[in-house]
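Friendly challenge for the regulars: who can give me the structure tokens for this chain first? No prize, just bragging rights.
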Amino acid sequence: LDAFHAEVLSTNWADYLNLVYSVPFWEAELDKLTTVVQPYLHEPAVGEKFSSVQEMMDVLYQCEDVRDHLNELAELCTRASGFMGTGYAAEEKVENLHEHAKLCG
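First reply, four minutes later:
Bragging rights claimed.
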């Protein structure tokens, strides 16, 4: 449990490719740990550590959601200038970027 917590927490969460490769393995490991730790959850140290691991994974998923949302906004902004910035086939401009930034921060 400690090793899993340390591995996930010490990884660069801003490295998209690393997360693409690592998260499925972490999820599988967390499933195994969830089963293994069940008989020991009544012990304070184990219960607290497992709770910390669950919270860490929730925060990781929230960070991924924010990153994905910001990437989507960036893509929409680049599409507003049209094909290769020529204005051809330009899409609607995103006008409320500051509101999105406040919601994500």
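The chain has four helices and no strands. The CA atoms of residues 36 and 86 lie 58 Å apart. Your move, everyone else.
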